Amino acid sequence: MNLSPDQTIMFEIGGIPINATIFYTWVVMAVLTGVSMLITRNLRPDVPPNRWRTMLEVILQGIQGQIQEIAPGPSRHLLYFSGTLFLFVATSNLMLVVPGFEPPTSSLSTTTALALSVVIAVPLFGIISRGLRGYLKTYLEPSFIMLPFNIISEFTRAISLAMRLYGNIMSGAVIGVILLSVAPFFFPVVMDLLGLLTGMIQAYIFAILATVYISAATTPRKSVQPERDTP
Description:
The protein is mostly helical. Helix content is 68%, strand content 4%. It is built from six helices and two strands, in the order E-E-H-H-H-H-H-H.
């Protein structure tokens, strides 16, 4: 039993082995791109929306609403980034029901790459929003003593993001395989349902945490004013 799709070699291109993680990542990207192109091919004001376009708009409005609750104000670029993360992770986890499909999010290399994209996006969004000097000052808040702790927190965020998503998806797949050997006609259905639920929750948590980290880097901290006694 392979614990990670990294260990499964699908084919080779020019002598370079393509493992299941890379192959199924391409599959998810192709599905997202193909579905988006099909839904938006007649995206004109004079064309009434069909049910697929309505569903896509509902999903995007839901993501935008969640982002607005965390980061009020202009958030179009944040919608692009966090929305893409959510759709990729959610689609990867939902395709678990496809026979033979191994979600790339069950690979530590995929979750690490997603976490690194968040780590890179945080200072980029912070510098764009507050300038280089203003962003670097956040490492000295609330006091310069916090500098090493703030730097360490950046690395721990990446580790926690990667390990949380990888651990939940990988453990679900492993437990499903074990239960499949015990009761092959009952437990797979239950585990697939639990896997779908867990996968959607993890996609939501991953995107929300990325939004929170970016929002913290782009929003100035409010200074806490001491309360004055009223006469």
